[in-house]
Every structure is written in C-alpha cells, then in structure tokens.
Amino acid sequence: MSARLVECVPNVSEGRRPDVIDAIVKAVGEVEGARVLNVQSDESHNRSVVTLAGDAESMAQAAVLLTRQAVALIDMNEHRGHHPRLGAVDVIPFVPIGGATMDECVALARRVGETVWTTLQVPVYFYAEAATAPHRVRLPDIRKGEFEGLAEKMRQAEWAPDFGNPRPHPTAGAVVVGARRPLIAYNINLRTTDVPVAQAVARAIRESSGGLVNVQAMGVQSTSGLAQVSINVLDAARTPLARIFDLVRVEAERYGVTVAESEIVGLIPLDAILDVARAHLRLRDFDRGQVLEAQLTE
Amino acid sequence: MSARLVECVPNVSEGRRPDVIDAIVKAVGEVEGARVLNVQSDESHNRSVVTLAGDAESMAQAAVLLTRQAVALIDMNEHRGHHPRLGAVDVIPFVPIGGATMDECVALARRVGETVWTTLQVPVYFYAEAATAPHRVRLPDIRKGEFEGLAEKMRQAEWAPDFGNPRPHPTAGAVVVGARRPLIAYNINLRTTDVPVAQAVARAIRESSGGLVNVQAMGVQSTSGLAQVSINVLDAARTPLARIFDLVRVEAERYGVTVAESEIVGLIPLDAILDVARAHLRLRDFDRGQVLEAQLTE
C-alpha cells in the first residue's frame, strides 16, 4: 500500500434499500487507488457506514463521487431512522492512518467540501480538526436539530455553512466534512425496549456529561427493538472498549437491565481487540507480535 | 511467503541462561527460508518455546541444526524446572499452517526424527499425528517418568524408541518429534502459592479427567512463585480461551482462590483473540474482516 494512506468513512443516510446502498458504494469503483474496506448498514438507524482507504487524491475523488450518487438517490424528506442526521451524506471524515498527517487530512476535507458545494450545491460544514470555530468542533452540536430543523438553524449567523448558501439542499440537506483521528463506532444493546434507560446510561458513560473521556454516546432504538447505547470511542488506546462495556453493564444494572449484545460498526484497529483479550484474560506481557498473522504478513 | 508453509515449535530445556538460548536459536539463522517468529523463555519451567516458520525443507534443516546446538549446550543431568521434559530438546512439533498438509508434516517429522538419531545419536519418539501406536499419541504419556526415569522406561518393549537404541543419550535424553494442528500454550497464575490447588483445578478443566475437550492442563509453580495452571489448547476454534479462563476462575473459587493473571506462550492465531473479544463484549456479527490491519494487508 501507499506510504501516505488516508481512510475516509462517509456515513450515508440509507440503511434499508440494498440496491441504493450498492449504487452509492459502486461510485467509488470508478476511482483508481480507492479501496472499499467495509460497508455496514443498519436498518433501524437507516444509515450505512462506508469505510474507504487509499492515497489522498483517490480519497478526494471517491468522496465526491459517492456524495454525488447519494444526493441523486436519497430524498431526506422521506428519510426516517433512529440516528440523528443532517443530510443524504451525513458526515465525511478523513482519517490519517498510514503515514499521512492530520494537516493533509484537514486540507483534503477543505478541498472536498468546496467541491461538494460548487458541483452539487449541497452546503458544507467543517468539523473536528477541520472546524472553523470552536462551537463547530463537535459533530453532535452541528447535527442538533437534524435535517428537519436545518432551514431554521442555517438562518442563525453562527450556523451559516462554511461553504454554500445558508439554505439546505432541498433533498440532500447539508453535509459535514472533517478530519479526525481513527474512532471506533460501537453499539451496545440492552435487554429492554425502554429507550430512556439507554439514554440514561449514555449520559452516565459519556465525557460531555461526566463520564469517560474519549467517549460520545446516545440512547436510541436498535433494529431488533432493543434499547441501544450508540457510542463513538475517540481514543480506544486510552479508553479501552472493555472499560466502556463494563461501565455500561454496571450503569444498566441500576435499572435492573442486562446487556444483550454489542456490535462494532465498520472497522476496528487490532490493538483495540487485543486490549479486550488482555482485560478479560488478565493477560500479562502480551505483545501484538504474538499474533500469528501479524508475524506472517510482516 | 511460500504457498506451503510449515510452523515448527521446538521446546528446548533451557529457560534461564540467555547466552545458551541465543546460541541455540541462532543455529536457525544458517537456514535460508527459515524465520524465527518468536522465542519465549520461562525461568520457572526452565524451558524455551521457539516458533519457526518456512517451507518444509527449511523447517527440516532448522529443526536438526537447533537440536544439534541444544544437545551440545544442555546437560539434562543438571536441569531442574517446573515442567516435565524428556530431553535437551523436549519436543519438536511440525504444524501445517499455510497450504501445507498434515501428511506433509508427518513425513517431515519422520525424516527429522531419523536424521536426529543418525547424526546426533539422540533416540526419538514420534507423537500426535506422527505416532506409531495409539499409546504414543499423547505427549504427557510419552513424557511420563521424565528424563530421570527414561533409562528404566526405555527398557520396556512398549516404550522402545521409534528410532535409535533403547538407551537415553547421556546428556540429552530423548526427543519427541511429531505433527499436530496449531495449539495455544496458555498459563493461568492463581493468587496462591499452593500448587496442589493448581493441580486440582487442572484436573477439573482438562479432557483426560472429565473437563473440557481439546484441553490439556497441569498444575505447576510459576516463576513468580504463584501456583500455575499450565494449559495446552488443542483446538481453540471449538474450545475458546475465554471458556477455559472462566472455568479456571470458577474452579479456583472453590478453594477461595482468585485468578492473578494469565499468559499466552508463543504465538496465537488472530481468530482465538477475536473470540475472547466476542465473549467479553457479547459481540454480534463480528467478522475478522473488520480488523483494520486484516484489510490493509490483504
């Protein structure tokens, strides 16, 4: 692989129609050097997470083509799902993974944002490391009000888009583009249909309301009907998955609720998985070099 | 790497003198195509587990050269350690890992066994898939009586070596050579110095005395002085590590003893680690393709 590898993880507001999801992902196939690593669709969220990797140039082209296809095929006026979203392509993060720098990813986000506006007329917000103001760093803040509240939100000066007119695209809303470190999208389903329990647990475990640093969380309803704590782990090296799982388990117990199952959305770094094994098995001195496959592919 | 990859895991009866261990492992460096994947030494066991990989021809050469060096540098009359052993090189398993077949590994074991006897005059037993009789399949049965009881054991017709005279090599004892599927060597330390507790737990969890299939276990003393359940997992796909750890934890509780820590000796397949994460996090639908590194190295 290229020495300067970028990951791009568009979140698309379609998780139910396989033909539409396929058509959107296929747009990436036209770009030389862009690889589709993973596509994960969630019916209840009505959302698909597409993971791409390649050099910066291929990621820029792939992000624009995928967005063009999603804008053509998705009408947000008819979109319903248990996950907040602003537009047909809700968010496009660029992530430095193999030698690429965060500065390169910020530049990439800015370039793609400009192209999305000039060629597709979808207004663009920049977030995370690419944010243009402190109140625009956190995705949940930008997304607050969702597609349905976007027209009104855009009329406020502080929420004018970074590129484009302050009016939502009629069917595609707006898109949030940015650069961030790798994160893990992680959902934990509780053995209850009571979404307020998941919301209370989410509040207890997330950084913004006094919980674990590097953790964003919200309570939603899962495809199976179970209440779900939907989590982003911003730095799993410092706040490992097992700690988050165990805290969710303990917090849910306050309501007499157990954990049914959990789910990793998209990709996860090997080290984050090894840390779970270390925690459960109380492993001493375990090194990733002990994983057979890690040795054979060196 | 070659399409027909064999793993070879010599267990050498030296875990305390780094210069001796180094000299033994270095013998492999002379063989083109042979790679040293891992060396793990245990002072309390006074034993080192060397993991090699390469094509069949390079593994045959490496096994013989390593054995020659170990025979030259180790005197079993002075060897003490908390792990049963028959000789300077205690056991040499060949493992099919990348396209190689079990039949190839059996043939390799037979060839190496013959060479070890004819060139080094160390008598050889074949075990596991390479065994020449049912009572020689299990390593613990062959090893029973250890180096100290070997001269007497060899005088029994049923324990005549497969190659060589029925007398131990004076300083190197005998070597057991064979072919087997990949196994995981796994030690669990209990928070007690009472070795009989580890022995009782080992009996409870192992196949041979009514416990889990695919599990061999014995109670020994670890380097830190803690009682240790020393385990071989013969098929971690069917009897996963988390199940074994959890059963050890429960069995130890009967004696009021907790698990201090555990340790994977040598290499472990990625799938075995993923299964621990699946168990602890109650993961639903998690595929190894979701591991970022697995994607990038494809």
Sheet having the most strands of chain A: 7 strands, mixed
C-alpha geometry of chain A: globular
**Structural class by secondary-structure content of chain A:** alpha+beta
Helix content of chain A: 25-40%
Description of the structure:
The structure is a homodimer of 298-residue chains. The first copy, chain A, has 298 residues and is of the alpha+beta class. Helices cover 34% and strands 23% of the residues of chain A. Chain A has helices at 18-26, 56-73, 102-120, 139-143, 146-154, 195-205, 241-253, 270-281, 292-296, and strands at residues 5-8, 11-12, 35-42, 47-54, 89-98, 124-128, 175-179, 184-190, 215-221, 227-233, 259-265. In chain A, the strands form 2 sheets. In chain A, strands 1, 2, 3, 4, 5, 6 and 7 form a 7-stranded mixed sheet that branches. The first copy, chain A, has a 4-stranded antiparallel sheet with strand order 9-10-8-11. In chain A, a hairpin with a 5-residue loop joins strand 9 (215-221) and strand 10 (227-233). The longest helix of chain A is centred in the middle third of the chain and has 19 residues, at 102-120. Chains A and B meet through strand 3, helix 7, strand 11, helix 8 and helix 9 of A and helix 7, strand 11, helix 8 and helix 9 of B.
SSE topology:
Two copies of one chain form a homodimer.
Chain A lengths: L4 E4 L2 E2 L5 H9 L8 E8 L4 E8 L1 H18 L15 E10 L3 H19 L3 E5 L10 H5 L2 H9 L20 E5 L4 E7 L4 H11 L9 E7 L5 E7 L7 H13 L5 E7 L4 H12 L10 H5 L2
Parallel strand pairs in A: 5-7, 6-7
Antiparallel strand pairs in A: 1-4, 1-5, 2-4, 2-5, 3-4, 8-10, 8-11, 9-10
Helix pairs in contact in A: 1-2, 2-3, 6-7
